[in-house]
Amino acid sequence: MRRDQADGGHALVQDDGRRDFLRCAAGVAGVAATTGLSGEAAAAERPHLQRRDGERPLPDRVPFHGHHQAGVVTPQQLFAGFAGFDVLAEDRDGLVELFRKITHRTRVLTAGVKPRDEQVAAERPTPDSLSITVGVGASLFDDRFGLSGHKPRHLKAMPAFPDDRLEPSRCHGDLSLQICAEHPDAIVHVLRDLARETEGLLRPRWRADAFLNPSRPSGARRNFLGFKDGIVNPDTASSREMNRLMWVTPSCGEPDWALGGCYQVLRLIRFHVEKWDRVPLGRQERIFGRHKASGAPLDGRRETDAPHYRDDPHGRRIALNSHIRLANPRTDRTDDSRFLRRSYNYNDGFDKQGRMNLGLVFCGYQQDPERQFATVQRRLEHEPLAHFITPIGGGYFFVLPGVRDSDDWFGSRLLRKL
User: Fold this and answer.
1) Structure pTM?
2) Alpha carbon of residue 161 to chain centroid
3) Residue ranges of the domains in the chain?
4) Its Enzyme Commission number (predicted)?
5) Under-70 pLDDT residues of the chain
6) Shortest CA distance to 4 belongs to which of 381, 329, 384, 331?
């Protein structure tokens, strides 16, 4: 999808078995960093990881237990891996086993215990701000496990919108994983660990490795179209805002087991950078509605300035079909279509035609994908930016409620009721 800034996608690998999973997990986007996940807790550990970009530091350990899952309102780590899977469990007992194993390994890894393939006793513990976020797709709620009557209200296979060119091998899945950390090798180690622990229960469907570009010189990050991305988001510190736009609450009419969860929209969107680079700067800025250098709206000076649409009803300063104006018109009527964007860039080398394969793995979290993401997407249909980006994959998923304590596990409230 496209948002208050541009989006992109990731060319992914489709795998048919555990061997391909491990081979896929061994190749991470970007160069290897100095360290990834680490060993057990130690009192000498730093309480926070120091960021390279001037942002507030992340906690060394992102708390695992809670009413909501980590990795949604958690400040973005520098690296992320996204993947969709098909569940191979043959019955409900196998599904319970799968979720229990994922819960156990997530609890262990996010606490700082290293995966077996990375264990070196002499290394100092560095938990790496790891978070692992688990979602389920509409296809999980078929007749295999008796879940058909318990599906979240708005969960369905992601539809193809008019500007999409979705590739089936890069779409959907019974289960989604978002793995975020401060170093790219941590993503690989987690995938390898989960592949070992869930052997015979999961089959990879697609995967995307992604990262954040440094903030230059400050403020929001830039995508590979050169514009700052993610300037405007809901206030994650406001429980009122989050309960209105993000989390499933009793008033949403969802199944009881879903309370505390939310919907995840993943969009793999490729940038056509060769075509974009031939566009004059002034036209690029009119397409977005923002200054490329500062990120400010075309009628402002700073990236945080709100555009004055009411003073510009005919679009003389910020075009009526500019990306930011279509994505967020800033009216009372469209306010409920806002959602949280937590996206990452990708670089997948060159394609067969010798073109650079760059883009954005768009990740949006929300309470209702039809009211929010799909409504915004329809406003963006055939926008000028659509000539330079192509959505190629992704899916709709429901992020399970958080794991409350050491006795709880992912999906427990859903599967214990059956």
Assistant:
1) 0.87
2) 19
3) 18-415
4) 1.11.1.-
5) 1-56, 117-126, 417-418
6) 329
